[in-house]
Design a protein that fits this description.
The chain is α/β, with parallel strands linked by helices and 309 residues long. It folds into 2 domains: 7-225, Ribonuclease Z/Hydroxyacylglutathione hydrolase-like (Metallo-beta-lactamase, Chain A, 4-Layer Sandwich); 230-303. The protein has 10 helices and 14 strands. A hairpin with a 2-residue loop joins strand 7 (126-129) and strand 8 (132-138). The mean pLDDT is 97. The structure holds zinc ion (ZN). The site of zinc ion has 6 residues, from loops.
């Protein structure tokens, strides 16, 4: 299934969320803007589309406020001052507070530039993008304020981190907060009501097996629901691997101090693992090595993930 001329999918990687670009009479829209470290790439990919379409960027939309979806916001606003920026209404308080642990920025050793927004988007609202009508659907869970966009006429779902081909964005353990897991379950239930032929996810390639992906994601969620420790391991491993992706490398001898200083590792270790910082650092590294996401050479750890520069 191919996208209409007025819609472009820009696949990035697991560090920067994918972009979706739309062309309308008044100009172009981008949904989600990647991670801050590679904002230059985001700008270049957007400019490519704007050149091909011969139109200005007029709108920036964020599905949620994690670092990999908002990282290019400020750079895009600066290089396209005519563009307005919209965030989900349910994210406004969190953005005003900026960098609360729930946003997983400095708390998880991630970064983003603070930015201003012009409007909020409410679930149930309909957006005109790429000549099509998109329903805004609330998909709390992975992020409690997250939205997805659904085009009934073309049967396309822009699913952000609510649903990937093989999974979904992390949810936090119930001991931290019981609401996200229950909300994610309700989100999957809500999504099953949709008639979808093509999913454009926040990470990974586009895919057509919507029913299969929902089934796999639901099974994964129910396995998590059985075991808070499994969730806790998933979160700290995911955050460590993510940090390694944007850092590229880390001194092996600095890892103990690192896990003691980064909020998510310090707090989750205290609450779930109850190891010394040394032992926790060793375990985390062993897990990342086992998953082939990190390699050791001399006194350095290197990320093995390919991120698009
Ligand atoms: Zn996310």
């Amino acid at each position: 299934m191919t996208l209409p001329e007025s819609i472009r999918f820009v696949e990035r990687d697991w560090l920067s969320a994918n972009h979706i670009l739309f062309r309308d009479d008044d100009g172009a829209t981008i949904v989600d803007t990647g991670y801050v470290k590679f904002a230059e790439t985001t700008l270049a990919r957007v400019d490519q589309a704007l050149e091909a379409w011969n139109c200005p960027l007029v709108r920036i939309v964020n599905t949620h406020i994690h670092s990999d979806h908002i990282g290019g916001n400020l750079a895009l606003q600066q290089s396209h001052p005519g563009a307005s920026l919209a965030i989900p209404a349910a994210e406004e308080a969190m953005l005003q507070a900026w960098d609360l642990p729930e946003q997983m920025l400095s708390y998880a050793d991630q970064h983003a530039n603070r930015f201003a927004w012009d409007r909020t988007i409410e679930p149930g609202e309909h957006l005109r993008l790429g000549g099509e009508t998109w329903e805004v659907i609330a998909t709390p869970g992975h992020d409690m304020g997250s939205i997805v966009l659904y085009c009934q006429r073309r049967r396309i779902l822009i699913s952000a981190d609510a649903l990937w081909e093989n999974g979904f964005g992390f949810v936090v353990p119930r001991a931290i907060d019981p609401k996200p897991l229950a909300a994610q379950r309700a989100t999957f239930k809500r999504l099953t009501e949709l008639d979808v032929a093509l999913v454009i996810p926040g990470h990974g390639r586009m895919f057509t097996d919507f029913t299969g992906s929902l089934k796999r994601a639901s099974e994964k969620l129910e396995a998590f629901a059985q075991d808070d420790m499994k969730i806790a391991r998933n979160v700290v491993k995911g955050m460590f691997i993510y940090s390694m992706m944007w850092r590229g490398q880390l001194e092996r001898s600095a890892l103990t101090e690192y896990v003691g200083s980064v909020g998510v590792h310090r707090d989750y270790n205290a609450l779930f693992f109850r190891m010394s910082d040394d032992a926790f650092a060793d375990w985390l590294l062993a897990e990342a090595l086992r998953a082939d996401k990190v390699r050791v050479a001399g006194n350095f750890l290197y990320s093995t993930s390919n991120v698009t520069p």
